[in-house]
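new request in #modeling-help
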Amino acid sequence: MSAGMEFVLLTFMGLPLLMVLLNNLLKKEIAQKICLSLGIIAGIVQMAAAVFVFASLKAAGQTEADFSQFWDLGVGASRFSVDFFSLLVLFCIGMVITAGFLTAGKTLGDKKFNFTNLAMILLLGMNGIALVTDLFSLYVFLEITGVASFVMISLNKEGDGIEGAFKYLVMSAIATVFILGGLAFLFMQSGSLQYGDVAAALSDWQYAEQPALLIAGFVLVLVGFSIKSGVMPFHGWLPDAYQSAPAAVSVILGGIVTKMAGVYALLRLTADIFVNVPVFNQILMLLAIVSIVLGAVAAITQTDFKRILAYSSISQIGYILLGASCGSAVGLIGAMLHFFNHATFKTTLFVNSAAVEIATGTTEIEKLGGLQEKMPVTGVSSILAFLSTAGIPPLAGFWSKLLIIIAAWQTGNVFIAGLALFASIFTAAYFLRLQRCVFFGPAVEGLEDTKEVTGGVCLSSLALSAITVGFGLLFPALLLFLQGQGLI
Amino acid sequence: MGAMFGNMAAFMTGGSGVNLLWLMVVLPVALAVLAVAIPRHAFAARSACFLAATLADLLLAIALFIAKEGSMLLRWTDFEINLAFRVDPFSGAVLLALGIFAVLVAIYSVAFLRRKEKYGQFYCYYLLTLAMANGAVLADNLVVLLFFWEGLMVTLFGMLLIGDRQKPATAVKALVLNGIADLLLMLGVAATAAHAGTFMMEGISQLPIEGLGVLGFVCMMAGAVGKAGAMPFHSWIPDAADAAPLPFMAILPAAFEKILGIYLLVRITFQFYQMVPGSVMSIVVMAIGAITIVLANSMALIQKDIKRLLSYSTISQVGYMILGIGTALPVGIIGGLFHLINHVMYKCCLFLTAGSVEKQTGSTDMRYISGLGKLMPVTTVCFLTAALSISGVPPFSGFFSKELVFDAALESGMIFYIAAVLGAFLTAASFLKLGHAAYFGPLRLPEGVKTEDVKEVPGAMLLPMGILALGCLIFGVFNALPLSVIQPIAGEGYDFSGWPDNWTLVAISCAVLLLAVGNHLFGYRRTGEGLKAADHIRYAPALRTVYDCAEKRYFDPYDIIMQLIKGFAWICYGIDRAINWVYDVFAVDFVSGLSSRLRLMNNGSVGRYMAWSFLGVGFIVLLCLFLV
Amino acid sequence: MTTFIIVLCLVVMVGFAISAAMLRSMLKSAVSLAAMSAALAVILYMMGAIWAALFELSVCVGLITVVFISAISLTTPDRRDEAHAADHRRRFAALPFILIALGAAIIAVLVYTGFSLPLPGEEAVAEATFNQVFWQTRQADILGQILMLLAGAFAVVVLFKEGKKI
Amino acid sequence: MEGQGLLLACIFTPLAGAFLLPIFGRIHVGLRNIMSLLFVLTAFLCSAMLLSPALSQGPVSVYWQLPLGLSIGFLADALAVFMAATSSLVASIIVFYSFGYIERYKNQNEYYLMVTLFLGAMMGLVFSTNLICIYMFWEISAICCWRLIGFYREEPVVRRANKAFMVTVGGALLMLVGFIGIYGETGTFDLLQMQGQTVANWVMVLILFGILSKSATLPLHTWLPDAGVAPSPVTSLLHAAVLVKIGVYVFARLFLVNFQLEAIWETVVPWIAAVSALVSAGAALVENDIKRIIAYSTISQLAFILLGLSTGTMIGAAGGLLYILMHSLAKGGLFLCAGIVEHSVHTKDIRQMGGLAKRLPVTAVSFLFCAFSVMGIPPFGGFFAKFMVIDSALVGGTPLLAGTYIFGAALTVVYLLRVFVKVFLGDATHTDVKEGTWEMVGSVAILGVLSLLGGIFINLPTQLTSFIVENLGRW
């Protein structure tokens, strides 16, 4: 591993810490002014770092690299490690955090300073989840992300802010209990919580002395992470949390936090640990298909912009989990790509909802109408994001959904693949309703003077739409690259 | 356009017989375009061009009639559907007839339309109709026949619209009825081609009528009968009599459509299919003929307007031709064809006389005009010869052709002979009424028309009437001349010229004529008016209700068809709205109902979320027990 | 010597547990809860279960405490009047004595039936020294602990800035 | 190489050029109009120039193999060139027409963007040889159709646009499941590699859903009449000439050129189409909105095309293809005439119109020409197509089937005549009415004359259709 890469790897955890220190040590007035720009710098540097490490890994021909944050470790220690998947995720985190900070510019009045602190902690927590290779450390960083996001949701503390945060807190506490219970059982079986060791221990789990305990462990872990990722039966808290969070926070929350805390962990589990535990995958697939269909159906009659996006997230997370639970390489790649795409277009949609909230003061779609003329950039980016979510071809969402469906088809569950694909008709349904009520329909009398929201919000929605369209058009090149890497 | 002119140039230099065929169709079309191109006010130039076109067509027809043989083939599509023309003795004769009548009516219509404003359009449609008719007769490929056959509908629609654009009902009626007949013909053509295996007409001969052949025969026969104007496709002709300009009535319903319809009927029954005398199919055809004779004639009897009476009698005379051909006996076919030629002559003449009456008095309604004999002597003479000929009075042509049909009908079945004789009686009675009321009763003119300006029509109108009247006489006395042309069509060695040899038939028909005269005198003495001579039949106890219903159009097939179509349309509209309801109302409610039930799942209380989570865990544990 | 430390920690643990139950202010009881878990962690360490001690330390002292603090801060404290506070103390006044009596009774029964506390086995200690486990194997968790405390600090700063009475 | 340049130009000039139009629009409105027409005309010229290589030596093709059975491939064989030329010809006339029609309305930039993008998608779909590429262009056309139907932005209009999008995308998703079913069996999406294989029945059912939803056949047809709320050039372009032909073209491309079908489908599909023809013809007779009538008529005529293509006879296939050409021209003309009438009389209800022939002579004559061509009356082009299709119904199917379609044809005569008479004849209701701009009248006249010439010079288009049918290698 070249020295340069060594240093860059450290920045993932080091830089946000530096930003926090910087933010708090500077004088109050200076801090107030520059705190948002600090956040943007952190996000952009992280994106650059991810790309740099990706390039150097590809150049060196390695697929992963281990490193320790402070000093070198003995054997069997819980170290950080980086591979293509986690780099992709780190890039997404950087992207969403930058978008979050760009939208924060206009939405958070005097709360910018606290927002920056908490966001940096959140960034650290998420980076930790991406980098860690030990189940218990994963749990620790999970908790850090959880706490940071509770507090951010209740940043502006008027009525529903607290209520949403409280629900998220209670459900996360339950999830914590489940995860810890599950870890304990796994720890009993494998003696160590390293991904590799646990996977080895579970290879012949049917013949272990107490298979019942192991099954209980699987179930607990699965349920814990399902609650964190908002899969259908456990999704209660998600819509309330997204709706009550302030605009910038909901951008970060919807864009990446739930996915990191729940979905990425599940992907890691299915990819690394529960590879040869078919029970886990089958149940996960069932949960996935349920949340795809019911998430989309539930979104159809919502009346609040952000609440629709919340249910849409549940549905799209279902697709990611469906891809992961197929167990085939194509499925995992499809899930990863859909993770990235979902991060992109969901953030675009949340940024749009923020823009609408800034311009009109409300996210109630019944009160809005005909904003396409007055807010062209928001309108066009919301259309692109909607088409990508519904999986309409030229855009990115289609390709990743196609890979997932092909993987599901190849691994034999034909009916579920067909149902999942047809479920995107419900996605189209609620987004068409959204478009009709907010952008495409006739103008509403009270909104004549609304103007387009300029500055950070506009910039981020344009950039994210460009990524969605670019990814969609350049997908063949990506396919060839993956074939080069021998992954397909 | 390049390909078309290229072909034409190539054929101009080709064999003599070949380019004539192509010219028969292209020349009238070219001159029709020219006629419209000439500026509106140059009436003389347009009429000259118009007449020249008809004359040229006549000359070409004569040339082809003499040439006897000739064919032409041009590529259209690859499935044997090619532009193929062929002339043989039969189609040569028909072409000649078309040409003659076209010229006569052309001369008449030039005079008739002098001050009408849309005469240019009339000329164009007239020539296009001529071209289409030539094309249909010359066609040697079933699809080409269909092409020109349906093309006539366009010009028919156009001509009917010239009359009165405000009341398009007649044009619609004509197009719908002809449309249905032509679509049946299309089905028949497809079935015949499938049955025979080829579209080329000379490749199809004596097909057995079973399986697909039945469908083919019935549908093509329906198409031919529809064009000829027999039941059940007849009801547009009487309405057209009021709407369209009169020369239209003389040329299309009276001449061209009859000729084409019967030409195709003969082709079907005689060449394409093997219709055995006495078989089911021949009985069906004869039945259609008989019904048409009786019903149309009885309607003709009660008409008050000259043109309507003539159009009903036209429909009835077609019945004779169909009856004759339906017998599938040589005498019947020759009789039918001879009757066709005679009928076209005297019907054209009758329409032209009605035209001259209309030109002078402005109306053809017998309730307002009568006793014109003294004012229009030549017209009256022409009317008289044509009326006698149509009634079947011996020296005239009508008598001889009717005798042949009577002979064939008697041979095929008594019921058909009785129908034919009843028809003869009714025809004679209606023309006696017409003659007496219009020409020989006391002089009466519609108000505003003074006697001095009702004088004889100009020479140009009288000439065609005179020629036709003379023709009726000549073809009667020297009937060997037309028969020599017709007889070879039915096969060798038949000679029915001269006086009919079956004396009993002649006696019966003379008796029927006398009976008709007696009935007319009885009616006249009873009512004192020529017009009401037939009222005793009109208001006879049983017939009164039937006649009233017919007056109010209950039996009009067009109205029946339109009612059926309207009913069917409303059923379909109901189905369509039901399917639309499924999309707009049912699907939306179902999904939003499901969705709002899901919304209840998280109504904000944390307890409910926890309950759902634990429920989920329980479900997963159950699943595990089941799966592992 | 070790048994003395263990007994001392047990007493400390029970004391803090009772105070956590008794204290009226939520935040103080949360702190005492943390202290109790710390005592428990020491006991575990003394008895040789190093990993358990470490997990107990990082989970209970770090995470649970921070979670409780932020939870408490989220819920608006209900300001009941002093009278209620008085009868609260009166009703629970007897609790400590009952507990002590119950504890003594249980010990007596155990001693009577000849139950003896298992002494820490030597080999447990040799497995891995605490610092090696703490600093090497669980290094990621240290970073986690630091971040957790930072998150707790910021949570307190954000949620209590308006001087809400603890 | 020159051929491939043409092929790519034919597809990508409209596709890429469409996005430049809003920029041109801001510079100068005329420039945008001309550029939009230019892009569409280049598509037409390129496809016309591709005709000779397609007919003579090997067809031009571009191919880029990708993993997972995907590939980006375009092949300009005779069928594709025929469809491309037809749709781009009619599209260019319609774009020319919309210069006059659209200038009075807001958001014109989006209109021209979407129309040009739509044509680009049509070109792409027609030439592509990979199932996923076909699906991609299929969906792009669905997006353009959604935006164009919702052009007027009123509440009911947008609701209908959403309905159209939902039905077509729903059908397309089922079709995509069918495509993946094919992928499951053959392991590739590339049509060229799957030449001549048979398709499982359930896959056929799913694909049929997509085809029936796009070319509006009975159970999935209600979006087409509802889309009558769109501006006339849109209804003409989408619902008469080009969009609805996509479904029928894909049926031809998949089940005539590429795959084998079980015999059962040669009776099932014609009968589905027969029911659709009759029901929509009946509904057209009852409707009173001029655009809805013509839309129902489109559904009915599409059933004829589907009949031709699905009876599995040579004459039927050639007739179906010819019908596509003739119907595009004639029905496009009818919708444009309806546009002129609606523009001058400001109502769509035919009961309030009458006697417009005097005021709108060219429109009346063009309407009559196009109506006759749709009715299948010679000497207009529609006659040959209708005859060949009905002959195939008789030869390939049963006489009862042919009889049903004859009844359908009779209904067509009745309802089109009813519209013509109610709108153009009878006593004049609107006297102070002037005919639309010269672009509108010009394009309508062109379409009327083309319908007439299509009949007279029938040997030109039939050369192409029979060439296509011959080297299908099926009969």
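bot summary: The radius of gyration of chain A is 21 Å.
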